[in-house]
Amino acid sequence: MENILEEQYKTRLYSLHKKNTITSEQLNHFLQRGLQIINTRDQFHLDSVSRILPYIVVGASKSYINKLNIPYQSTSYVAAETYPESGRYIYKIPGIKGGGVRQLTGGKRKFGDNLYASTHKILMGYKAILFSINNLIENREQTMEWTFYANYLQPSFPELYEDLCKLNDVYKKQISSQYFIVVARNSKSFQRSGIIELYLKNQITIFNQSARKIIFLTDQTGYDYCSKVIKETENIIYVTTGDKFNIRNGLSYLKKKYNINLILNDGGRIMSNGFKESGVIGEERITLEPYPGKEFLDFNNNDFLLEDYTLGIKGSGLDGSELNGALMVSSIKIKDERANVYVYPLDDKELIIE
């Protein structure tokens, strides 16, 4: 199956190039980059998971990821269609806590997204999970781990939960250290977030765990401000990128110093867009949800809000898929949901270690 999927992907790339949909440079990049096809039954014996997700695709081969001078990053979202058959998907409802995920998914956490997000956090985030300081504070009561999603599955689908635990155990055995990476560009980012006050009140969950070390990625002003209170220890680390914040320098240091070659970027849409503009995000995994109904989602034809919170519009991708500038490499239907993987071109000239 893996070989068939890879050959189908290559054939599709050549077809897109022949139609002048992608450039020769993009064709060569995606061919060189390759794929990883994870067979959930044959590789991990996940019988329950494999009935729903027979394979999981990563948008770059292991050899390509190892050649990068920064960690390979993937993001994850759930998005709902704004109207039936509209082809426009939004990732957030303004003014609702947590972006209104329950409303986007019809008033409850959806089965497909919980399963897909769980596997994604295990496979892409077993080494490191990155988020913005604002996202950390907004979700300060969460563990930020895969179990947040999997716990919704456990009561009704215990066999799926057991498979996810098995998968997590396999990946944890491959590493010596795990990390949470918190991006705070400078001292103002720390100040605006209110992290010090919440830390002193012991209201941030990730500081009460020992499984992962916490790395603050910031500039010199951020270090000078925050480290006075949140002291640097064996489990709390500061990585400064210089007098001014430089994300590529920071990521390069994380790979060299801490051997972090893979990161799940869970930083929120604004930060993820900034990372994409800097050319340091490789892929996105998105669960596309059908229109949840007017009782959950009604913009009253407010095109301004629609534009602000749109994740993607069908037809805007390199191959006509939903994400601007991206190519869809995998799509699996889970009841009325779709679990999709999209890849963004990376700059091989700057990111590949010679």
Describe the 3D structure.
With 354 residues, the protein is α/β, with parallel strands linked by helices. It has one domain: Dihydrofolate Reductase, subunit A (3-Layer(aba) Sandwich). It has helices at residues 2-18, 24-33, 47-50, 62-67, 101-104, 111-125, 133-138, 147-153, 158-172, 187-193, 195-200, 220-226, 247-258, 269-277, 303-308, 348-351, and strands at 36-39, 55-58, 72-81, 88-90, 128-132, 178-183, 212-218, 236-240, 262-265, 283-289, 310-313, 327-334, 337-343. The strands form two sheets. Strands 3, 4, 5, 6, 7, 8, 9, 10, 11, 12 and 13 form an eleven-stranded mixed β-sheet that branches. A two-stranded antiparallel sheet has the order 1-2. Strand 7, helix 12 and strand 8 form a beta-alpha-beta unit. Helix 6 packs parallel to helix 9 (158-172). It is globular and about 55 Å long. The model has no long low-confidence stretch (mean pLDDT 94).
Structural class: alpha/beta
Compute the separation of the termini in Å.
Answer: 33 Å
How would you state the average pLDDT, rounded?
94
Question: Mind telling me the CATH class?
Answer: Alpha Beta
Strand tally is 13
User: For the CA atoms, what is the radius of gyration?
Assistant: 20 Å
Strand content: 15-25%
Concise overview:
The protein has 354 residues and is an alpha/beta fold. It is built from 16 helices and 13 strands.
